[in-house]
Amino acid sequence: MGKAVGIHLEIRGLQKRFGERLVIENIDLQVREGEFVAIVGRSGCGKSTLLRLIAGLETPTEGKITQDNIWVQGINPAVRVMFQEPRLLPWQKVSDNVALGMDGKTEDIEERTSQILQQVGLEDYKDEWPAVLSGGQRQRVALARALVSRPRLLLLDEPLGALDALTRIEMQQLIEKLLQKQGTTALLVTHDVEEAVALADRVILLEEGEITLDLPIPLPRPRQRNSTKFVSLAGRILDRIMQTSANESSRQVL
Ligand SMILES: Nc1ncnc2c1ncn2[C@@H]1O[C@H](COP(=O)(O)OP(=O)(O)OP(=O)(O)O)[C@@H](O)[C@H]1O
Ligand SMILES: [Mg+2]
């Protein structure tokens, strides 16, 4: 099987209104093939809306989203999304949850499913019901389901937000490894600045529907979280977020 290549995403003049409310003001963003971009920003600033627009689950009020220079309208077939909750079907076994929505010959689907379950370390759980899995294991199934069809773009909306610190770090390492291997382009929304710096090639800060910081993370992988450069980059981003929060103290905090 050839290596899948991530898409080149381009967003121009994107705006989204819900009635009177302007949620995405004016976003221009380019994401290279195989690039990993983290999006941070306080609650309500429009992060999930941005991902939903890219996935084609919402229609832009203004602006264009193109992939490899093709204008995408409607549900985007190149995309898979992973959310904070695993959203598994309780009446389907683990392997059937992973294979959900896959097309092709049964044996190919079975092979791909067992391969990805092995990669996320759950090959022994393929015939289990989701109910017997831990929270971290369920998120691994969700990750396997998101990656089994080798999507060209993966959108992650706080996928690790509900996990304990250790499981979270393990999942971060797994996501990094699998995405690098598949060459997938990825956008990760997270509230955890350290997670953003550990995983992303670039970190973007979204404030009131606009990008106000776009910071490259030029650190070799896998990243050493206690290195001076890592700590200093994370500190810069956090300072920037806190600074804005302090300036608008009446608003919700991150
Ligand atoms: N379908 C909708 N109709 C009306 N308003 C919406 C809709 N979806 C989102 N909004 C509003 O858009 C704003 C941004 O919401 P969004 O979910 O994108 O924020 P977020 O940055 O993901 O926040 P959080 O960090 O809490 O997940 C919010 O004020 C929300 O109420
Ligand atoms: Mg959100």
Overview features:
single chain; alpha/beta; Rossmann fold; 6-stranded mixed beta sheet; 7 helices
Q: How would you characterize this protein structure?
A:
The protein has 3 domains: 1-78 and 153-170 and 185-193, P-loop containing nucleotide triphosphate hydrolases (Rossmann fold, 3-Layer(aba) Sandwich), CATH 3.40.50; 86-150, no CATH class; 212-254, no CATH class. Helix content is 34%, strand content 24%. The protein is built from 7 helices and 10 strands. A 6-stranded mixed sheet has the order 6-7-8-3-9-10, with helices on both faces. Strand 7 (153-157), helix 5 (165-182) and strand 8 (185-189) form a beta-alpha-beta unit. The chain is globular. The N and C termini lie far apart (43 Å). Adenosine-5'-triphosphate binds at residues 18, 21, 23, 41, 43-49. Residues 18, 21, 23, 41, 43-49 line the site of adenosine-5'-triphosphate (ATP).
| Low-confidence segments | 250-254
CATH top level label of the largest domain: Alpha Beta
How many helices? The count is 7
DSSP E strands, number: 10
Sheet-strand content, in percent, reads 15-25%
The overall pLDDT, averaged over residues, is 92
C-alpha termini separation: 43 Å
Largest sheet: 6 strands, mixed
Name of the CATH architecture of the largest domain: 3-Layer(aba) Sandwich
SSE string: EEEHEEEHHHEHEHEEH
